[in-house]
Amino acid sequence: MKKSKLAASLLAVTVSLSTLLTGCTTVPDTSGNSSSSTNSSNGGSSSSTDGNSSTSTGGDPSPDTPKLEFAQGTVLRMATGYNSKNTGLFFDADYVADKGENGAITLANGKSYSAGDLKPTWVAVQEKLGMVFENQYQGNSAAKEWEFWKERLSEVDMVSGTASNLTEAGAAGQVVNLAQYLDQMPDFKAYLDANPIVRLSIAGDDGQGNISAIYFAPYFDGVNDIERMPLMRVDWVQKLLDGDGDFAADSSGTTATPACQPYMPTSGKVEVEVVTKDGNSTEKVTKDYDTAGNIIAKMNDAGSMSGVDAVNMLRKYIDEAYGGYYGTTRSDLFCGQNAAWDADELVALLRCVTSNAQTLNGTDTIEGLFSREDNNNQRRVDMFRFAGSLFGVRGLESRQDYLYVGNDNKLHDARQEEATYVAIERMNNMAKEGLISTSFINNSEESSATMLENDLGFMHYDYNQTQTVYNKSKLQEGEKYMAVMVPVARWDDGTGEQFMRFTESWRSVKTDGWAISAAGVEGNTDKLNAALSLINYAFSEEGQILMSYGPEEFRGTGTFNFNGKEMPVISDATYEELWAKESGNYTNYARRCLGSTLSFVKSQAFEYQCTHEVGKEGAGYISNAIGKGTIKHPELALADNPWYTSVPTVLPNSKAENDTIAGFTELGNSGNFGQSKDQNNLLVNIIAGGFTGEGTTSPAECAATVSNSWNGTQYLALKNTAWDILLEEFANL
Prior knowledge:
This protein folds into 3 domains: 18-224 and 510-610, 3-Layer(aba) Sandwich (D-Maltodextrin-Binding Protein, domain 2); 228-377 and 384-404 and 414-502, D-Maltodextrin-Binding Protein, domain 2; 638-731, no CATH class. Helix content is 38%, strand content 15%. It contains 32 helices and 24 strands. Helix 6 packs across helix 23 (525-538), helix 16 packs across helix 17 and helix 17 packs parallel to helix 30. The longest helix is centred in the last third of the chain and has 20 residues, at 712-731. 53% of the residues are buried.
């Protein structure tokens, strides 16, 4: 279905977004603390209430639709949070002990909080909506939290879980179908109407064969924006590549015996569209392989060489291949607004960096590519995600397993495609040359923080804000760690193979959310309506701000323009505090201190304000390129060209189908494709150690094994059945 057709369909059902709450009653604080709840196991509360007053919330539904009403002080038992005991609704004792003193933590609003107290965001929600929160959160990941409570759902009212297990639970009647109450949730409904891919991503089977149910409130870790990006020690690139004349060094190492082979052409010319250096427009730059040759082929022909010779070979190549376009500021090829680098040029740069440690850090060792935590598979998988961007492979950053929408409007599975393993083999060749960190190869303890603090690591692929913060906390004056443009690669979007920049790392619905326990609220209209009201409020404009920024007392005066919208600014005290308590990491501060960004819609505007100036510079280049169309990406819509459609986070397979899929253990997290800390992943293993093991000795054999021996063919057929159902459902809007 075409995007224009869908938009026309949705226009007819769109409702007005209301941000005002009506009839809300404040819960009085009788505790003497900033929190007004207790952790009583019987659902009680320290807040006094007469038990007769009611609260309604949200924008106005239809006059004929009953408003959501519930008794003042209604208690919601919350088994909800993000991913640890520090990121729940209530302050954890260990965190208070670590960040506070004398048994309390004092925040920028001047208030003190003890262990077990409700965090400021949720105090504000209590006061606004007139409900009371009780802590039942175990401090697990979403998957583990659900696993803990799924047999005890009568003991909780709201619970965290993954999109897949909550959707499956909904079809089994274990969690409430929110779609039945959308008319009473005007803010939530308006959000879904305005964002059709969101509705597509959370659709579930209503138990009667209709794909119209919604079993969880979706979470966005930022909306419609790039997620991960390459980051480099820009000062090192400048030191090696910029300036007149030849590069010279008193001492250098040597490059390894070549293992990497050319990815880009070895002859001919390639045109690439880039943003101009001033950022104001776009232009075409030419890679002239007839004149310059392919840099990897040239280096390979030369064999192992000194670091100095490698740098001068790369300098000459840049001058010749781009016809002097970059002048003596050759680092712009990688780090500038007008960057046009590709995988071959990156391999050449990594060879130069790792063989010139004496020049760059004064030692004999520099690690090239590294991950955020080299002993944590949850982070090590970013290496194969980066491979997708480098070598033009879809599905490696999918929100739904390893699926992507092809130009045939069918789902495809990266695990079953030979091209995936060819790309992974290229990464393994980089490892053989010592261009990937030894700690990654050995699965040993190392982190991006220590890599940067010790001037040991050059580059990785990660979140901009959480990593560029190290410019202030880990790097010295003159050192610069910055996000750089995504690479040029071969892509075929159905219009023919072309050299362009495309990122699959696009923010959309995350794979976890919050659901209402059917057994928990059964027979209790107050609890049900309170939970529904909470979700509705979270998707109002006011609620979205609160869930991102925390209460007004943490904000400053005025607004700033972010992506075309006026957004609040944080106070100076808040900014100082997030550096003091969380070393400038806004996300950690928001979750651990404010209780915001735990679910629902996270605004990137707060994060942007808190980003180090170096972080803003690199992200600004990338955002400008996206805005001007020189970086392509999936769309949060059913795109005219389906290749650009984001894969839904959840697909509406039946319980029987999901049970069948669950039986394909080789494909799952417990089998060969886990993406959590202690799980096994074939793609990571191949990058680190090459092709080993029965049925996985080559790219072709890997793809065939997944399809034929590990039930990949059946898996993909079941997923496409659900995808077709979704498309039909939305065609009938």
